[in-house]
Amino acid sequence: MNDNLLEVSDLSVHYPGRAAWFFQKAEPKKAVDGISFVVPKGKTVGLVGESGSGKTTTGRAIVKLAPLTAGKILYHGEDIGVLSNSDFLPWRKKIQMIFQDPYNSLNPRADILSILSEPLEIHFPQMTRADREARCAELLRSVQLPAEHLRRHPHEFSGGQRQRIGIARALAVQPELIICDEPVSALDVSVQAEVVNLLQDLQEQFGLTYLFIAHDLAVVEHVSDHILVMSKGKIVEHGTPAEILGNPQQAYTKTLLAAVPRF
Amino acid sequence: MSAEPLLKVQDLSVTFRTGDRETVAAEGVSYELAAGEVLAVVGESGSGKSVSALALTRLLPPEPSCSLSGSVKLAGVELLGLPEDKLAKVRGGSIAYIFQEPGTSLNPVYTIGFQIGEAVALHRPDVKDVEAEVIRSLAEVHINDPERVANQYPHELSGGMQQRAMIAMALACNPQILVADEPTTALDVTIQKEIMDLLARLRRERGMSIVLITHNFGIIANFADKVAVMWKGRIVESGPVEQIMRTQSHPYTKALIACIPRLGQRRRRLTTLSDELKVSR
Fold it and tell me: Is the domain of B4 the same as that of B111?
């Protein structure tokens, strides 16, 4: 019917607040407050905002890592927001996530083979051990790491290499949509460029769709087809990179742009 | 005598020893820093920029696992051979540090006020009213309601506030030199701007020198006077900031600047260090 992979409407995530007095009604903390957006298939939508703006919560709500208070999340036209955790399992295969901190998102006691095998065991139970190992080696090659590294542990890798492993783990189940939550914020400039290029190559190769969450406007501008600017739980402005950077309408977007040191 | 810089580092080398393997983390590092000057040290992870800054006051493992050579002179006094008790006075006293992750630099089980007070009591025994000094230093870094923050624990503060508390602690001892090791890497752009504006103001008001370790060229262009580019443990290029930003003579510096995505200059692909250096070698 249309080519929107993901359609989010009026999404809210509220957390119970703390009442000042015992008998007072607690005001909920509105982490995400009624936002709507679409992510077209094969495109990259950038989501920017400062810490606490609700951008990460938005990404997490889509994959049920944050509780939904209200709103609809349509994936290929199907409402996935109302599903229970067990009914959601097949969608976890289609929607994967890459996390910010490559040091904390990999189990330090597992080797790379078991880190990459785990999603395969869950989503492809019919795969044999040998098939899984072959697939893991192929995954490492697709993120430009040597396949011999399968027996190594996370501490033996640099930050950039760990982020590649995080990407390989997301790719393992052949997802359609990847939610990238600040994938390059913890990396230094030279490694950042390599990881950004890798993400773009993989998008081309596998026809992936990205929701790219970051606070670095220059990176978001570089990767995105469409940008959403979030502040205090709401989307305050959206448009193409040229529109957002060339002619920002909202005061908040202007502040965000002015804060970027230029040279 | 006027030619004597505040800090003069000459031929500083740091070598780590693990088992029978030696790793040279920094080699032949030399620079000078005048009072009130900001020197930016850039380079990627592992280039030796942090290690060479920690070596100034020997904030490194003891011999024989780590050995230093060269010379570090602070106002004419050699720091490298200094006995441990004298060096302890320099650390945090004349040369103070702030680090990348304020959350891990603060002790989680003590209040902010206690931790700043500890530094004041240690380095400035003449201060009678430590508590007032703590409040004053928190107010100086633009913390609203310093009395309340002094009684809070690190986990109750945001990243930006934690970094301000770290800066307040560093400044409480009136240092001549502040070493800021990636002070804003963990913070987002708007908070980054606030912290950098704060450091710029403190430098202006106090005439304090800053060694700024970073990989963000945007910050360097707006904030530093001089730049030293480190690669594989050595300074490969150094000079005034305008010169380095305009014309880079070393291929590594060129490559480092080329790989940064810039606002309003969309490219199809980002240049990486390996493409750049391959071409220029």
Answer: no
Tokens at B104, concatenated: 């891990």
Instruction: Report CA-CA distances (Å) from A25 to A18, A19, A22, A67, A104.
Output: 9, 6, 8, 21, 37
Which candidate from B187, B218, B274 shows the least CB-CB separation from A262? B218
Same domain, B64 and B150: no
Looking at the structure of chain B, the number of domains it has is 3
How do residues A112-161 score in pLDDT, each as one tens digit? Answer: 999 999 999 999 999 999 999 999 999 999 999 999 999 999 998 988 89
Determine which of B256, B263, B265, B273 to mutate to test the interface with A (most A C-beta atoms within 10 Å): B263
Q: Can you give the residue range of the structural domain that contains B184?
A: 1-94+176-247
What is this structure's pTM?
0.82
Tens-digit pLDDT profile for residues A41-51: 999 999 998 88
**Whether B8 and B87 share a structural domain:** yes
Distances (CA, A) of A244 to A15, A131, A236, A256, B211: 30, 46, 11, 11, 35
Q: Which fold does the domain A4-106+175-258 belong to in CATH?
A: Rossmann fold (3.40.50)
pLDDT at A25 over 80: no
What is residue A142's predicted lDDT score, i.e. its pLDDT?
A: 92
Of B156, B174, B192, the one marking the end of a domain is B174
B133 in the same domain as B84:
no
Considering the domain architecture, whether residues B213 and B169 belong to the same structural domain is answered as no
State the complex-level ipTM: 0.72
Q: How many Cβ atoms sit within 10 Å of the Cβ of residue B144?
A: 8
* β-sheet with A226-231: strand ranges across: A95-98, A177-181, A209-214, A44-48, A226-231, A234-239
Tell me which of B130, B145, B174 is where a domain ends. B174
Contact A37, A212 (CB under 8 A): no
Kindly report the nearest CA distance between residue A131 and chain B, in angstroms.
34
A188 chain-B contacts, CB cut-off 8 A: 44-45, 215
